[in-house]
């Protein structure tokens, strides 16, 4: 077995360099994807169905070979040092598998052994308890509900104490209780230094949980950004001003604010950035707008603000993708 490569910076646990994947059918699933994932972060990989998310995860986990480029995990090349790299990874796939006649305890313990780790009943017990599976440890998997089978998949992925955990659509088809347990566990794992990479259709969860967000569309990684910076940069804020009396039209003196008037003339909408400046030009502020309204003797009866969500940003990014 080779020693770890030294090309990845110390803060990166995964390095994806120029990865492409073209299948035998000619379908191009990934195009020149380059990505560093930091040690100890929660990274959300977002994209529509067929965008390439699962292909990228499969390549990083060594389940699919890339057509071009390279991947290293904890410094180990996923092809040249497959066993060393793969042992650092836990993967929770989308599909439920049954292992029908095995018990929960046996299948989770067996998964640990697959990665060459010594038996550790105390660790297996800890994992099962953290996922509310301890009472089911002697149950055969074929007898479990879909939600419990999903918990077993997570337990198997954690059995060998990986540095990196992939959660591929982990919330698909699970109940609220499991979702809550799973995200509690994700936070605990991150606090212990485990890197979490998740794909999800529940964008409100990515918005709550992720440190960084990557958006993939048509096989290309179109954006990687700290979540907070992304929300500041692309998250639109709006001030809705409900007028005391409807307007027939916006006065010319208010044109610099780029206001929108509702169809019934009863509401003005002002779009602005996080620092309160309007989108239509520097120096335009909420305070300035309210003063301008007063100067025009335009009275209002209510104000309320709205802010776009990560889902709004994601949809707009995918629509703009080439």
UniProtKB/TrEMBL annotation:
Q: State the InterPro entries in the record.
A: AAA+_ATPase (IPR003593), ABC_transporter-like_ATP-bd (IPR003439), ABC_transporter-like_CS (IPR017871), ABC_transporter_ATP-binding (IPR050763), P-loop_NTPase (IPR027417)
* Keyword field: ATP-binding, Nucleotide-binding, Transport
Q: Mind listing the GO molecular function terms for this protein?
A: ATP binding; ATP hydrolysis activity
Establish whether keyword Acetylation is in the entry. no
Which residues belong to any copy of the ABC transporter domain? 14-243
Q: Which domain of life is it from?
A: Bacteria
Query: What SUPFAM superfamilies would the database entry show?
Result: P-loop containing nucleoside triphosphate hydrolases
For this chain, the family text in UniProt reads: Belongs to the ABC transporter superfamily.
Q: What is this protein called?
A: ABC transporter ATP-binding protein
Which organism is this protein's natural source?
A: Xanthobacter dioxanivorans
Q: Which classification does the entry list for the species?
A: Bacteria, Pseudomonadati, Pseudomonadota, Alphaproteobacteria, Hyphomicrobiales
């Amino acid at each position: 077995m080779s020693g770890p490569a030294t090309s990845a910076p110390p803060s990166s646990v995964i390095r994806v360099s120029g990865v492409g994947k073209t299948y035998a059918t000619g379908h191009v699933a990934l195009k020149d994807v380059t990505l560093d994932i930091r040690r100890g972060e929660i990274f959300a990989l977002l994209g529509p169905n067929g965008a390439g998310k699962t292909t990228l995860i499969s390549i990083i986990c060594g389940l699919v070979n890339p057509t071009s480029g390279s991947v290293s995990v904890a410094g180990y090349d996923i092809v040249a040092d497959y066993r060393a790299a793969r042992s650092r990874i836990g993967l929770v796939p989308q599909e439920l598998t049954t292992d029908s006649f095995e018990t929960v305890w046996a299948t989770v313990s067996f998964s640990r052994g697959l990665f060459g780790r010594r038996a550790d009943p105390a660790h297996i017990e800890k994992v099962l308890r953290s996922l509310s599976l301890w009472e089911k440890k002697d149950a055969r998997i074929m007898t479990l509900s879909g939600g419990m089978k999903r918990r077993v998949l997570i337990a198997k992925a954690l059995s060998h104490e990986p540095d990196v955990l992939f959660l591929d659509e982990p919330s698909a088809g699970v109940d609220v209780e499991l979702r809550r347990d799973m995200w509690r566990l994700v936070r605990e794992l991150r606090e212990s230094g485990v890197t979490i990479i998740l794909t999800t259709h529940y964008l409100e969860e990515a918005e709550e949980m992720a440190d960084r967000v990557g958006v993939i569309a048509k096989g290309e990684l179109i954006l990687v950004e700290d979540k907070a910076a992304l929300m500041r940069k692309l998250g639109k804020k709006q001030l809705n001003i409900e007028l005391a009396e409807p307007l027939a039209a916006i006065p010319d003196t208010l044109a610099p604010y780029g206001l929108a008037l509702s169809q019934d003339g009863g509401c003005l909408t002002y779009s602005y950035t996080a620092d309160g400046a309007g989108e239509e030009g520097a120096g335009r502020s909420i305070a300035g707008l309210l003063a301008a309204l007063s100067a025009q003797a335009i009275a209002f009866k209510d104000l309320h603000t709205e802010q776009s969500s990560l889902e709004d940003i994601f949809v707009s990014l995918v629509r703009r993708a080439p």
